[in-house]
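step: validate -> pass
step: tokenize input -> pass
step: predict -> running
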Amino acid sequence: MNNQHDCKQLEELIVAGFGGQGVLSLGMTLAYAGMVEGKEISWMPSYGPEMRGGTANCITIISDNKISSPIIANFDSAIVLNQPSMDKFAPRVKPGGLLLYESGNIFKPSTRTDIEIIGIPASTEALLMKNAKIMNMIILGAYLELKPVVKNESILEALKKVLPEKYHHLLPINLQALEKGEALVKELKMVNA
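step: predict -> pass
step: emit ->
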């Protein structure tokens, strides 16, 4: 029953990187999307005193059942956007879990063999799309292609809540970014098939 392709009922995710990379908004958007779908969610941010440039991370839990604790030591998945976060959180992904990372910012990915490790050039793609701020949505799209815990339509609904109204004109590019992330993972899977 619980093979890799079945969506399980509980996903415990850590998103980590530098402040200013959209770490917290990525986790919050995912949490809101879970709420849109009627799931139980938990979103717990943590950041250094120097926000931009300092490290930031958040734990996002999406579950079909009540969540016992928002504080967890090990994760089903990790999305890491910088080297310090790779060094800190890669060892804490559960065996059989997923480690998704931004390949332009990380030069020494984890060498673990008991987890799936995938690098996505999200920063480069965001620049090609002429908007550096959508890097986090590209990586989120890649994550959702690998672990479809919520639907893209729910992410769009969530973005309407996360983004201030004056930025709602950016919803289309955020959707394009999600789709770009999906496409990058599909390309990688074809190359590695």
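step: describe -> Residues 1-7 have pLDDT under 50 and may be disordered.
step: cleanup -> pass
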